[in-house]
């Protein structure tokens, strides 16, 4: 059964699985993990726009991940977000995947995606990964399910303090939309029956240096062992960090904000030693499983890598839409219509 | 600026209000830099069925033609174009967005059609690979042909569609400036090629972007390149006879269990199910998760799937304890995998015959190869050397590697009545079998035997094969399923493994544990070697590595023992260079340690220990490389570089029964044999060999490959093709030339006729073959593979193969960079030298070698099949979890052939002067990477793959 609502309201009134780009949902349906009727967003207008005004970037839930990575206004004003969008999945997927679908996608846990196995997330009694093979799973424990949160954009939008607008106009910040990770059945906390309509990203202070990257074994197109986004502001005169925002994914069932790392940077000159010391704090509080203990050792290096790239970001350079998650600096945000 | 902004100015304040219309509905088109046109395709969706339907009418254009199709709600665009529109160029591989083989353009943008709902095509324009060449070949297609950027061709349509979009955008923006390797890699990051054609793909995309292929179609070095770049090549998965039915296989979800009750009734009663068959009786024992229990055939894949589920849901098992790894399998009291099976029924993981050995519990061995040489003397020497401190040793463990051919195992069987029969004869059933196989002939033979058919009544077809690497050498269950169900139903039945099935039961290189000790004498000569190997072949036996480690550094003083450790895992199979990469990974790292302990240069040491004449010459080349000169440049920084070296050797196998038929007439020359081309280039080899003798162009030789009805062919495996089929083709062409000359003399009275390039010389001019043939009439000959002048290692053939007296040789240097922060190992470059004698086709040979190195890199750094410890189920069921190298992972690969013209005569004992390269080229790669990591960091990797976590642990 498939529905083609013509408006977002109509869509919200229908029960079933919402389909945007389908790059996540279709694989799950193919595996028999999702059998509900379909609420296809194809014919719902007005979801796939992007707009910048004096205070915010407004992105429709149906806007593509590729569009986000390639839009000059995003590259200039939200360099870490653009880099994260350009650093996830593959070119074909980024062209089809939507911002809403990326935030609300399901986990990639190999127990969850195994059609014959019933894990906690699918209504079973235990998290099969805990007792089983959890090499790619979490090393922080937010709840019973240890599948890492899959969404790179959720991570980036967390670091950019985005607000998510639902179809009924409700605004939720990222921590609220994602939930705290204690409910193993849910990968996010979108109220049932609601749809994501748009995300609004506040413009940051001028002079942001940002980078996004992931620790993986191959060059590209691989789910991260650890993924990190960092935003730094450096007082050019004093040479010290005035503000920082750092977040990490791939290590817990929700993306983690890392205020302690940011605090360790503020007021300091961002030398190699300072960055290394700050990065070392990123693993504080980890409670690894036997098979993810290595991530505790990997985190400091991965965070340090991204802090270093953010610090060294060349403010005139553009991000590469290449999946390598290269550092993505930017110039000054231009107020729309202002120049 | 656009007005729309003001309209929702209040929302933009960050609170966004509760406007029903929401933001972005105003007129934003035209806003500076705006990239949006709000997605209101509903107006165009005139045929779209309103809410709540299963079938959706979609109107779109496909390859420039208007199409109105009715599609399912969940139907993938891939299925729409392949199954409904018959456009089979787009390939199904992973069905999960990982491999890119299914890529099509939607409004000129590449999409993975496996994840793209067909309903999304409404009002869109789709271009498949077939549409790319609608108006002649695209420059990218020409470049792929010219640069030989393909082998089996199964990934090729996807790469080309993506590269076309990249090329067109690049040319529009940059003219004929060449994109960098990194730019090409970024654009093609969503594509995987298992054959490892990446080096040529870089070159092809760059050449096309430079504008070098704008004008005319090239002559491709690969005979079937055009079919592959246009999507015209038809693989087993593309075969769709009328009334095709679909199979689904019921598999065990348990690693070790007794099947208590399997009831097929739920499937039999289903509307649309035409046949049901079972492979394990009630009370039978299951030995691995994924084992075939039964199969169904139905009118549609969906019905077959529903029937599969119904049967599996009702099945009852008595689950028993299982063993998956070495330690649990060898522990006291471990469940025995083959307690009740007859020894001769053990499935084989070997390519050749399984060597005899005793079996106790789950341990089988040592195999009799340990009887070669003087093992007792080796033990004594080692004891003394240990006392003198002249031994290097280590324990090395390698992972299970899955073949992962991009075309899965698949078969389409049609069991049907004979056509008209001769008088007095009874009608006999006929079996047509399309199968992705490395041997159409063996498949036909096996099918005839199993189903008691006359050999003449089985017709096996495999014109194109999307890779095999050893996994498709012997007939496997997909063929049994398809044939059995077709026999029962009388319908053509297709059984194609899903990617999850392929990665589970498609075959694998067993995990291995190798204990190696190498002793040297006081003056630095090789003293003795002991190597004890354990292979976890799952529920199969017959892995050998000792034999392979024996090929390097000749000495009698070796003890080489091989053991199989049986476990409840999917059975292993021969995999390109069976036993080679794991054996060499251990041995060559220990030899590197010998050099280190002795404070000696690793090449200097090998010059004394190695006797392979070709490799000794290749060491000179390696020593001249800058990467070798800086081999220990690691330092203390974040990134550390180093270069490692390793050697490999392989056997020379010759299949002397191979034949090649030539049918020559005024219409041309047709070469045929019951062989196949799985991407290794057998077609090109034959065309080149025949053309070389007759003095014509290879493209003028027509080929019929992949049909078992033709003359005796050859299995594409064991590096045997070049040295077997090549000489047979030469023999056929020489015979043909003589027969034409004789016919000209006899029938036309051309007593003076002499064989010349392109035809017969007669009265001072060369008369082209065709013209002679138009007068003499058609002539057919069959060429043979004659005896080798140098004789054989043993005088008789084993399993149809003669073993040559010479060994091929390889030496590889690899430079890596290790990121000490994140544990990532990156290959900077590889240099591989091969001593294989005369090279028949330099371009294709280089492609094959580079592919072997790519697979070796992938094995060393990324690949790893993982089973759930609790259930024994395969967890790496998709190509995101089972990682193979992508285009950005390989670095430049330089290939050097030691003696491409055969001038040294090293291989003169083999007819044709050269031997196979397919396996020796993948044997040393992992070991050279291990040695490179050691050179870069001081830490020696003992486990494969060399994952980031292992590197970090090793460095900490
Ligand atoms: C090879 C590969 C690699 C990948 N690598 C990464 C990666 O590195 N990082 C990463 O973040 N992702 C990665 N992905 C996942 C990819 O980003 C997601 O599949 C994609 O973003 C989902 O977007 P979509 O529009 O296709 O969503 P869909 O598949 O249509 O939907 C995904 C989910 O979101 C829900 N949904 C979508 N839109 C809405 C809405 N507006 N309101 C309410 N619910 C909604 C759907 O109901 C569904 O449950 C990868 C995917 C592939 C195939
Ligand atoms: S089959 Fe579509 S990406 Fe692999
Ligand atoms: S040529 Fe790429 S998979 Fe075979």
Topology:
The complex is a heterodimer of chains A (339) and B (956).
Chain A: E1 2-3, H1 8-13, E2 17-19, H2 25-30, E3 38-40, E4 50-52, E5 56-60, H3 65-70, H4 72-77, H5 79-86, H6 91-96, H7 99-104, H8 128-131, H9 152-159, E6 163-166, E7 171-173, H10 174-178, E8 196-202, E9 208-215, E10 226-234, E11 241-249, E12 256-257, H11 259-265, H12 272-280, H13 293-311
Parallel strand pairs in A: 1-3, 2-3
Antiparallel strand pairs in A: 4-5, 5-8, 6-7, 6-8, 9-10, 10-11, 11-12
Helix pairs in contact in A: 5-9, 11-12, 12-13
Chain B: H1 4-7, E1 55-62, E2 65-72, H2 77-84, E3 103-106, E4 109-112, E5 125-127, H3 129-132, H4 139-147, H5 156-174, H6 181-187, H7 198-209, H8 225-230, E6 245-251, E7 257-261, H9 265-268, E8 273-278, E9 285-286, E10 292-298, H10 301-314, E11 316-319, H11 326-330, E12 359-360, E13 363-364, H12 375-388, E14 391-398, E15 401-402, E16 410-416, E17 430-435, H13 440-450, E18 458-461, H14 477-489, E19 493-496, H15 499-505, E20 508-509, E21 511-520, E22 526-536, H16 546-549, E23 558-565, H17 580-598, H18 602-609, H19 613-623, H20 626-629, E24 639-650, E25 653-654, E26 659-665, E27 668-673, H21 682-694, E28 701-705, H22 721-748, E29 754-756, E30 759-762, E31 765-768, H23 769-776, E32 779-784, E33 802-803, E34 808-819, E35 825-835, H24 842-861, E36 893-897, H25 925-937, H26 948-955
Parallel strand pairs in B: 1-5, 6-19, 17-18, 22-23, 27-28, 35-36
Antiparallel strand pairs in B: 1-2, 3-4, 3-5, 6-10, 7-9, 7-11, 8-10, 12-13, 13-23, 14-21, 15-20, 16-17, 16-19, 21-22, 24-34, 25-33, 26-27, 26-32, 29-30, 30-31, 34-35
Bound molecules: flavin-adenine dinucleotide and FE2/S2 (inorganic) cluster (2 copies).
């Amino acid at each position: 059964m498939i529905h083609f609502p013509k408006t977002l309201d109509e869509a919200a009134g229908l029960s079933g699985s919402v389909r945007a780009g389908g790059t996540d949902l279709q694989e799950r349906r193919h595996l028999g993990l999702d059998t509900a009727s379909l609420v296809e967003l194809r014919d719902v207008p007005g979801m796939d726009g992007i707009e910048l005004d004096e205070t915010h970037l407004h992105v429709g839930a149906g806007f593509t991940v590729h569009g986000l990575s390639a839009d000059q206004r995003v590259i200039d004003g939200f360099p870490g977000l653009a880099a994260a969008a350009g650093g996830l999945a593959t070119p074909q997927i980024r062209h089809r995947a939507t911002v809403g679908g990326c935030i609300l996608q399901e986990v990639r846990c190999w127990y969850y995606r195994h059609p014959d196995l019933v894990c906690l997330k699918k209504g079973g009694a235990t998290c099969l990964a805990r007792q089983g093979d959890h090499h790619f799973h979490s090393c922080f424990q937010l709840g019973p399910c240890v599948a890492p949160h899959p969404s790179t954009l959720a991570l980036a939008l967390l670091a950019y303090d985005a607000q998510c607008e639902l179809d009924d106009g409700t605004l939720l910040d990222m921590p609220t939309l994602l939930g705290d990770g204690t409910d193993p059945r849910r990968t996010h906390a979108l109220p049932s029956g609601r749809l994501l309509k748009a995300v609004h990203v506040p413009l940051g202070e001028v002079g942001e240096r940002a980078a996004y990257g992931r620790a993986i074994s191959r060059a590209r197109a691989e789910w991260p062992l650890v993924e990190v986004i960092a935003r730094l502001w450096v007082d050019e005169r004093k040479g010290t960090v005035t503000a920082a925002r750092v977040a990490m994914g791939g290590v817990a069932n929700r993306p983690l904000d890392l205020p302690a790392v940011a605090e360790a940077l503020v007021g300091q000159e961002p030398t190699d030693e300072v960055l290394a010391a700050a990065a070392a704090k990123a693993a504080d509080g980890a409670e690894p499983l036997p098979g993810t203990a290595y991530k505790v050792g990997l985190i400091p290096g991965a965070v340090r890598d991204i802090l270093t790239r953010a610090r060294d970001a060349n403010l005139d350079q553009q991000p590469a839409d290449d999946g390598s998650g290269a550092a993505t600096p930017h110039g000054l945000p231009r107020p729309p219509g202002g120049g | 600026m656009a007005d729309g902004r003001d309209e929702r100015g209040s929302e933009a304040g960050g609170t966004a209000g509760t406007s029903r219309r929401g933001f972005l509905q105003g007129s934003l088109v035209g806003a500076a830099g705006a990239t949006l046109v709000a997605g209101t395709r509903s107006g165009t969706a005139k045929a779209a069925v309103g809410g709540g339907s299963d079938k959706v009418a979609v109107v779109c254009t496909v390859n420039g033609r208007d199409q109105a199709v009715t599609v399912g709600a969940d139907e993938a665009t891939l299925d729409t174009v392949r199954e409904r529109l018959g456009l089979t160029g787009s390939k199904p591989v992973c069905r999960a967005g990982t491999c890119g083989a299914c890529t099509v353009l939607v409004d000129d943008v590449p999409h993975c059609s496996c994840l793209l709902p067909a309903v999304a095509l409404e009002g869109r324009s789709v271009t498949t690979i077939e549409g790319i060449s609608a108006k002649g070949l695209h420059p990218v297609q020409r470049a792929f042909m010219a640069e030989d950027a393909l082998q089996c061709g199964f990934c090729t349509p996807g790469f080309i569609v993506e590269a076309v979009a990249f090329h067109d955008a690049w040319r529009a923006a940059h003219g004929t400036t060449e994109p960098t390797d990194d730019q090409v890699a970024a654009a093609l990051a969503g594509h995987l090629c298992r054959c490892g054609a990446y080096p040529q793909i870089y070159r092809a995309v760059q050449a096309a972007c430079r504008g070098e292929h704008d004008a005319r179609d090239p002559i491709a070095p690969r005979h079937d390149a055009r079919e592959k770049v246009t999507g015209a090549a038809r693989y087993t998965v593309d075969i769709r006879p009328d009334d095709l039915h679909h199979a689904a296989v019921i598999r065990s979800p348990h690693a070790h269990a007794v099947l208590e009750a399997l009831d097929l009734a739920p499937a039999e009663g289903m509307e649309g199910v035409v046949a049901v068959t079972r492979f394990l009786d009630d009370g039978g024992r299951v030995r691995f998760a994924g084992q075939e229990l039964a199969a169904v055939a139905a009118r549609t894949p969906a019905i077959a799937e529903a029937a599969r589920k119904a049967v599996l849901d009702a099945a009852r098992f008595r689950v028993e304890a299982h063993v998956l790894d070495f330690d649990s399998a060898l522990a006291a009291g471990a469940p025995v995998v083959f307690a009740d099976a007859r020894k001769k029924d053990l499935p084989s993981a070997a390519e050749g015959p399984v060597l005899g050995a005793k079996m106790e519990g789950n341990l089988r061995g040592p195999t009799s190869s340990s009887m070669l040489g003087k093992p007792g003397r080796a033990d004594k020497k080692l004891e003394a050397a240990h006392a003198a401190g002249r031994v290097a040793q280590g324990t090395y463990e390698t992972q299970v590697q899955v073949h992962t051919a991009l075309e899965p195992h698949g078969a389409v069987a049609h069991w049907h009545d004979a056509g008209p029969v001769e008088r007095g004869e009874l009608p006999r059933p006929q079996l047509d079998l399309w199968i992705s196989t490395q041997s159409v002939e063996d498949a036909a033979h096996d099918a005839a035997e199993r189903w008691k058919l006359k050999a003449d009544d089985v017709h096996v077809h495999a014109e194109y094969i999307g890779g095999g690497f050893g996994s498709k050498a012997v007939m496997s269950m997909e063929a049994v399923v398809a044939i059995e169900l077709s026999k029962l139903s009388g319908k053509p039945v297709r059984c194609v493994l899903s990617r999850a099935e392929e990665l589970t039961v498609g075959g694998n290189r067993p995990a291995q544990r190798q204990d190696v000790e190498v002793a040297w004498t006081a003056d630095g000569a090789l003293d003795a070697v002991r190597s004890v190997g354990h292979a976890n072949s799952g529920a199969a036996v017959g892995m050998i590595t000792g034999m392979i480690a024996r090929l390097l550094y000749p000495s009698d003083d070796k003890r080489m023992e091989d053991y199989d450790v049986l476990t409840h895992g999917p059975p292993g199979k021969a995999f390109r260079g069976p036993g080679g990469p794991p054996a060499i990974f251990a041995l060559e790292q220990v030899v590197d340690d010998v050099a280190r302990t002795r404070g000696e240069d690793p090449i200097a040491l090998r010059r004394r220990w190695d006797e392979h004449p070709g490799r000794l010459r290749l060491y000179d080349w390696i020593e001249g490389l800058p990467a070798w000169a800086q081999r220990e440049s690691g330092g203390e920084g974040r990134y550390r570089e180093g270069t490692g070296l390793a050697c490999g050797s392989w056997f020379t196998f010759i299949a002397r029964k191979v034949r090649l038929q030539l049918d020559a007439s005024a219409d041309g020359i047709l070469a045929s044999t019951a062989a196949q081309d799985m991407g290794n280039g057998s077609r090109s080899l034959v065309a080149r060999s025949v053309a070389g003798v007759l003095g014509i162009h290879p493209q003028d030789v027509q080929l019929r490959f992949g049909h078992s009805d033709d003359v005796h062919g050859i299995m594409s495996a064991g590096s045997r093709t070049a040295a077997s089929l090549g000489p047979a083709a030469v023999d056929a062409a020489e015979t043909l030339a003589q027969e034409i000359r004789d016919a000209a003399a006899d029938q036309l009275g051309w007593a003076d006729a002499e064989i010349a390039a392109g035809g017969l010389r007669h009265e001072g001019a060369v008369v082209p073959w065709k013209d002679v043939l138009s007068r003499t009439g058609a002539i057919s000959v069959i060429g043979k593979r004659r005896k080798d002048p140098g004789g054989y290692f043993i005088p008789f053939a084993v399993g149809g193969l003669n073993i040559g007296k010479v060994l091929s040789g390889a030496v590889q240097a690899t430079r890596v960079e290790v990121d000490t922060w994140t544990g990532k190992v990156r290959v900077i470059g590889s240099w591989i030298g091969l001593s294989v004698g005369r090279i028949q086709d330099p371009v294709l040979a280089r492609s094959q070698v580079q592919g072997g190195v790519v697979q070796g890199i992938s094995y060393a750094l990324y690949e790893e099949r993982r089973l759930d410890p609790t259930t024994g189920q395969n967890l790496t069921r998709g190509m995101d979890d089972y990682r193979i190298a992508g285009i950005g992972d390989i670095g430049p690969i330089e290939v050097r052939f030691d003696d491409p013209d055969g001038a040294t005569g090293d291989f003169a004992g083999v007819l044709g002067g050269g031997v196979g390269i397919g396996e020796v080229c993948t044997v040393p790669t992992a070991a050279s990477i291990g040695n490179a990591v050691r050179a870069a960091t001081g830490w020696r990797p003992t486990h494969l793959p060399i994952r980031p976590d292992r590197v970090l642990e090793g460095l900490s």
